[in-house]
Here is the input.
Amino acid sequence: MLLATTIEGYDAELVERVVPLVDMIEISPDRWVREQDGVASIPQSALDFIAGLARQAPLVVHGVGLSIGSYDRWSQSYIGLLDQLFEAVPIRWHSEHLGYAEVEGEPLGTMVELPRSREALRLVAQRVRAIQQRYAVPFLLENVARALPDDGTEQFSPAGFVNEIVAETGCGLLLDVYNLECDRHNIGLNIPDFLDELDLRAVREIHIAGGTLYKGFRLDIHSRLVEDSTIALAREAMSRCPAAEVVVFEILDEAVAALGAPAVAAELVRLRGRLGLV
Here is the structure.
């Protein structure tokens, strides 16, 4: 299995230090966007920088802004960003959160989980198929950290809902183990039960990250180094996901600035050893 990390900005020192330590690089289109005259796009300077990364290591793309679960429409602006990237650089696969970030075109400022209903299942499955037809590479969905506990109206279990989407579309999965830890802390998710039920054969990518607590709530924010409990959970997931190809250490650009590129590089060396990655 391979090791990767996120690169989210024009940080020459970070690139110099971490690219030799990883096997792949993950980028998020949302982090490179600029808006001019009301139109969001990735500037040519960013595309050139990303193309330089692609010459050093294979690229995968991970999105935040598609809002695949918005009831009215997904983000056409984000589709435009994907179009730019697919035209500019080779991409192994791309992924998106199984949630929504916009309502009636207005950004929420966070990612919200979907209601686990048959109506939401049909909506997401239709959009997944449209994505698969538009881009000829695998598409993965990521489990999001949930903000609210179940209210008794759910028609599927958390893992069962994901399994239905996989069965209907053939999409892959991105398993974020830190998000599972957030759900365990915040809403009491039983992680062993979730993993036992989830179709782990569909998992192609695993995310790890370090976050923080705010007023007792564990936040899905990639601002810290990885805790031992997250590493242990990642090791378990690696052993149970036969198609998983890469473990990605997620770190925000703002966190890199705070921690320093040497600390991120040291963390990647530590993670490769602790996860047993060759």
Observations:
- Residues 118-134 form the longest helix (17 residues).
